[in-house]
Amino acid sequence: MVSLFLKKRNGTYILDKKEFGQRLRRILGFKPGRIVIYEMAFIHRSASHILPDGNRINNERLEYLGDAVLDTVLSEYLFSKFPDYDEGALTKIRSRLVNREILNQTAIKMGINTILVTQAGNNKASRHIYGDALEALTGAVFIDKGYRRARKFVVEQLLNKWLDLDQILETDNDYKSLLFEWSQRSKLPVIFSFSEEYDFEMKQSLFNATLTINGSPMGNGQGSSKKEAEQEASHQAWQMLSED
């Protein structure tokens, strides 16, 4: 898959900068400055540009930065919005907001899927690439405009426009936490075991998690991190327990 803002000329994809700029401005809600930073935010590792010196250009570093900025903005926002909540409650709410599935759905609503450059196939390793790009975009805003503008972007474009905070608060999708709370009440041990493989298409490691309860297999999960694999395995186990 390639992005819609790329045009093919003489067998090569080229960037339609005008179309990209227009779509980017609609997503951001303001006029960007250093466009090249935002272009980098929308290059997935599977479509990395290789420089003559061997360095790869993609959005991984911006994703790392954006993840930290997003956590900081949300922590500050929730701290002010819920003055009576303790640290544990605030952390739990923040975890729900930055849930990989929530971020991915939000990114698609914003239109990030229409301008992301990727060669990733339709597999488990690529299911959260739009949410990852949203984090990279947040990092790009921080570099381009600074923290105040990045905070405004997160609050106005994500929280106020695209995220339903009340609905998210009513839905507990941290299945691992739910499972361990059930385990403590039931006095039954929950154990995760892991294996790792390499996805050559995505050029990254994939983790497989197997969850057992009292020695019986109850769930399997796969993801780009152990945490993601644990959540999927926990979701399967929670669904099985809920059916009993």
What does this structure look like?
It is built from 10 helices and 7 strands. By secondary structure, the chain is of the alpha+beta class. It folds into 2 domains: 165 residues, Orthogonal Bundle (Ribonuclease iii, N-terminal Endonuclease Domain, Chain A); 69 residues, Double Stranded RNA Binding Domain (2-Layer Sandwich). The model has no long low-confidence stretch (mean pLDDT 84).
Please specify the SSE layout and strand pairing:
Layout: E1 6-9, E2 12-15, H1 17-28, H2 35-41, E3 49-50, E4 56-57, H3 60-81, H4 87-97, H5 100-110, H6 129-145, H7 147-160, H8 165-170, H9 175-186, E5 190-199, E6 204-213, E7 216-223, H10 226-243
Antiparallel strand pairs: 1-2, 3-4, 5-6, 6-7
Helix pairs in contact: 2-6, 3-4, 3-6, 3-7, 5-6, 6-7, 9-10
- The CATH superfamily name of the largest domain is Ribonuclease III domain
Under the CATH scheme, the architecture of the largest domain is Orthogonal Bundle
| Main sheet attributes: strand count, strand direction, barrel closure | 3 strands, antiparallel
By secondary-structure content and strand pairing, the structural class works out as alpha+beta
Number of helices: 10
The outline comes out as: globular
Which class of the largest domain in CATH terms?
Mainly Alpha
Rg result: 20 Å
The helicity comes to 40-55%
Write a concise keyword list for the protein shown above:
244 residues; alpha+beta; Ribonuclease iii, N-terminal Endonuclease Domain, Chain A; Double Stranded RNA Binding Domain; 2 domains; three-stranded antiparallel beta sheet; two-stranded antiparallel ribbon; globular
